């Protein structure tokens, strides 16, 4: 049972990281997704900046120890991403790239809604009856 819990937490952790990186683009379609994504992005930035231990990592390690699987003491990114998906020496570059993707998704969202607002304003101005003198 603890092995299943550890694996489930692992999958949730990967999903959370994917959401941190790409979730800003969801707000393009669903604007209400902006605030939850902003919270997730701030959390991710805080964990990386201050080298905090993510609660998901703590739960996974606890479940693995309970399942009799020792030796997992590195962080999630150190264990499953660095050196697996990319060489560890590129970590800083990948962190910057993630930041650029998140900020880019927010910039795209801002442009999209600014254009929508301008289009709405123009169509309202065109539909108003002409002013009488």
TrEMBL record:
It comes from the Bacteria. InterPro entries: DUF2784. Keywords: Membrane, Transmembrane, Transmembrane helix. The chain crosses the membrane at residues 6-27, 34-52, 93-113. The keyword Transmembrane helix applies. This is DUF2784 domain-containing protein. It comes from Dactylosporangium roseum. The lineage of its organism: Bacteria, Bacillati, Actinomycetota, Actinomycetes, Micromonosporales.
């Amino acid at each position: 049972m603890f092995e299943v819990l550890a694996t489930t937490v692992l999958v949730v952790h990967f999903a959370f990281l994917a959401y941190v990186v790409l979730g800003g683009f969801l707000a393009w379609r669903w604007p209400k997704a902006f605030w939850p994504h902003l919270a997730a992005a701030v959390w991710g930035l805080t964990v990386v900046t201050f080298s905090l231990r993510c609660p998901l990592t703590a739960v996974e390690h606890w479940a693995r120890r309970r399942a009799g699987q020792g030796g997992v003491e590195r962080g999630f990114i150190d264990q499953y991403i660095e050196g697996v998906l990319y060489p560890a020496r590129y970590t800083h570059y990948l962190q910057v790239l993630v930041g650029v993707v998140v900020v880019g998704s927010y910039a795209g969202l801002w442009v999209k809604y600014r254009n929508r607002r301008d289009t709405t304003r123009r169509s309202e101005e065109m539909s108003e009856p002409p002013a009488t003198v």
